[in-house]
Design goal:
6 helices; binds S-adenosylmethionine; 4-stranded antiparallel β-sheet; 223 residues; alpha/beta; 11 strands; 7-stranded mixed β-sheet
């Protein structure tokens, strides 16, 4: 079955386009596929994992970015009406498409307290009025060593990681989705004072193709 084009939009970096195939959606950026709904197992597993390891009964979970909303939908499903979810998404167009086309399929029942915020998550996290979060979930690149946008490198620097950690509730964690192992990033994060563990997420249709979640906690400081 072929993808049906739904809508295109000019964005600062070029063009985004939304396509549909039955219940599935695909977003292309400048002609290259950003994501399609047929391969969302690991994005779903990431959202479930965030809820599982958040320690508060009513956790506040920050997700960036929105994409097709599978991580958001999985977290919302796992929360079963508890807690709150905030999503920071760089592209207002992606939020608009989620509101009009994708959301009604992927997340038909919007949870109360869901907030979709347009803009860079790195800027959002530095706002004085945000947080604390029990889990911060980042799926904005192909991994901390496989960036989609060069600007996102800031997010995975020691400064960037500490900006996220500053907005964690006690016991809170940062989860990073990655399509690849990222040993240099792990070394950087450990050097910056984080305890890093790696989990394997469900593969996308091929048993030999693994995706990962890096889980970061700030190590207790010795006084
Ligand atoms: C691979 S998609 C996320 C997929 C999502 N987990 C899902 O379940 O569909 C990556 C998203 O991150 C967004 N993004 C990229 N850089 C960002 C940033 N610095 N801040 C917020 N969102 C960003 C992109 O616009 C895109 O929507």
């Amino acid at each position: 079955m072929a993808w049906d084009w739904i809508e295109s939009a000019s964005v600062p970096d070029g063009e985004l386009a939304l396509y549909r195939q039955g219940d599935m959606f695909m977003i292309r950026a400048n002609g290259l596929e950003l994501m399609n709904g047929f391969g969302h197992q690991s994005e779903t597993a990431l959202g479930q994992m965030a809820v599982k390891i958040a320690q508060d009964r009513e956790p506040h979970i920050l997700i960036g970015g929105l994409g097709l909303g599978y991580t958001l939908a999985a977290a919302a499903d796992a929360l079963q009406g508890r807690g709150r979810i905030t999503v920071a998404e760089l592209s207002p167009q992606v939020i608009d498409w989620f509101d009009r086309f994708v959301g009604p399929t992927v997340l038909p029942q919007r949870p109360a307290g869901l907030v979709l915020v347009p803009g860079d998550i790195g800027a959002f996290i530095r706002r004085a009025d945000v947080g604390p979060f029990d889990a911060i979930v980042l799926d904005v690149d192909n991994g901390p060593e496989a960036l989609v946008a060069p600007d996102n490198a800031r997010l995975y620097s020691a400064d960037g990681l500490h900006a996220f950690a500053a907005k964690l509730a006690p016991g809170g964690v940062i989860l990073l989705w990655s399509a690849f192992e990222a040993p240099d990033f792990v070394a950087l994060a450990e050097q910056a004072g984080f305890i890093v563990t790696r989990a394997t997420l469900a593969a996308v249709r091929r048993a030999d193709l693994l995706h990962y979640a890096y889980v970061l906690k700030l190590a207790a400081r010795r006084s």
